[in-house]
Fold each of these.
Amino acid sequence: MISKDDITKRFISYVTVDTESDPESDTTPSTLKQWDLANILVAELKLIGMSDVSIDDNAYIMATLPSNVNHKVPTIGFVSHFDTTPDFTGANVNPQVIENYDGKDIVLNAAENIILSPDYFEDLLLYKGQTLITTDGTTLLGADDKAGITEIISAMEYLINHPEIKHGVIKVGFTPDEEIGRGAHKFDVKKFGADWAYTIDGSQIGELEYENFNAAGAKVVVKGKIVHPGYAKGKMVNSMYIATEFINSLPRMETPEHTEGYQGFFHLHNIEGKVEETVLHYIIRDHDMNHFKARKEVIQKLTNAINEQYEREVITIEIKDQYFNMKEKVVPVMHIVDIAEEAMKALDIEPLIKPIRGGTDGSQLSFMGLPCPNIFAGGHNFHGRYEYVPVESMIKATEVICKIAELTAKKAIE
Ligand SMILES: [Zn+2]
């Protein structure tokens, strides 16, 4: 069906263009270099024969594959992001193609002794005998999410070249700046015009996700009083000790390193402290909306209790919601998950349906009116030098996209 060579070539042509995003920037896209790949993608979408190919002032790309049936079919969309994370460099990516992987250590970089080993990354053993694309150990790969882009474009090309596969209107959307949490911000859901969509931005083959965290950030500012330490008795208030009290009053086991599955947490990810002022940065996560609200209350009540104890406002807290669990927007249209599951089963892929311990563009899009579960793109070890993607998984993801299109058209008659 889809050739390994073609998909490998396409993927490599994308990952070798640096598209690192930048959280410090206020522009969209956050970095000018994202235009480099955006412009290539626009040209390629036109070249394969997509209609209404557009790119707006913020580098959001949209395109349409018209329906090839006469009956009415819901319009579906597929979405990926073309930026890569600022956590690790994406400049000068030099992909290594390892054919017929033997299940042993892969030397990414002999000079620096950087090894991708199944002793540490057991997932590798799932792909024995397959073709892996890895880094050279000095950069990330960018399978997150250029694998998704490769798969969507390859699927559209396949559908265009195989008109015997019947489908409704398909929309394609590529966004900048997902990795800095802004991929969906300027996504024009109305212009996109799909009834529902899928982000192709998951990891291992089979992943299908429609639940993610509810998320908030909390900034806790603790005020102390600085006095010369030699004359401080009864006068100095050391904000760092009060901050420690605050930290120790939250449940120690409800932290990322002690939780999994549906367990939520408080995560202290940054402290800046001096006697006069200490600032704590927390993120709060929970899949369950009631638990999520309760967590925000816990942290607020703790603030109040410490302020009462000191008989003044030693702590101020600012809690900001970041994103919400898409589940509540997807469950009422659960057939969109069922179709993806059915597509995978039809292709002998075992669906791995599990809650995301994070967020996706799809969660924001779901709350903007475009229900949007997430499907595997095939890569592993995102955001670092050990990132890799099996070519066979990319082909499977491409097939899943085609199959979803086909099933959606079929079900519209039934
Ligand atoms: Zn991603």
Amino acid sequence: MNLESFTDQVFNQDALEGMKLLPNESIDLIIADPPYNLGKDYGNDSDKRESEEFLRWTEKWLNLALTKLKPNGSLYIFATWRYSPEIFVFLKSKMIMLNEIIWDRKVPSMGGSTRRYSSVHDTIGFFAKSKEHYFDLDSIRIPYDEETKKARSRSIFVGKKWLEVGYNPKDLWSVSRLHRIHAEREDHPTQKPLEIVERMVRASCPENGIVLDPFAGTGTTAIACLQNNRRFITYELNPEYYELILNRINRIKDFFLEPPELPKNNHSSEKNKQMSLFLEGKN
Ligand SMILES: C[S@@+](CC[C@H](N)C(=O)[O-])C[C@H]1O[C@@H](n2cnc3c(N)ncnc32)[C@H](O)[C@@H]1O
């Protein structure tokens, strides 16, 4: 079947069945946030497997997904310390490992583990199929604030590109996990912040390119694609999450059709704030 018939769609389907139908080497980027095998309740048993079975299943879906990736495509995979060693060793036999990104979830210090250290991060593997992988650094640079710019005003820094355009993100990403007070928060145990997924989409998929997310959850990847002019293909087993994703997508489409009036000198942070309020139904 032709690729266009799958794009910008959410499928209420097992990703292993759905991905089989996609043409090989057609996807620019895979963002995978699979069950971590920590016993979470997704309304199914997908996060409650025996270790060996979990690893065999992981290799199976990865083998299938990688056949769909273009030769210059890349993959981000969310994991935790429990299985990231095995998963990364497996992926290193197939791909080039570019980074191990640590997502510091900014967990507040309140008690925690008493017989070992409290775990407060997710591990994200970033892999490419070849050295020619697509990576648009300029789209994800972090601008310096005025104070830092001033502090770097010595003559040796004047005219430096990085000072003007911002610095390149490091492999430690400190972004708060989502709480009830966050406008984008949906009813799902492991929803990822848009800020994280949007960075991946912008850096590693060209405009109009296609992002494949086998494990949609609340559809964060789909939303990040809609907001950044990329296309998506995504799967979710749980019919309730599937409905939730469709609602989330409809709200964002409404936002683009009828954007609220923004202040004249609005910049992107104001737009994002308005969009968050709108998505939450407050605008
Ligand atoms: C870690 S969550 C993804 C969260 C998502 N990144 C977000 O931001 O909302 C994994 C999701 O994969 C779904 N899932 C598990 N096995 C699946 C399969 N074989 N095919 C499709 N979805 C699956 C689960 O129901 C769960 O919602």
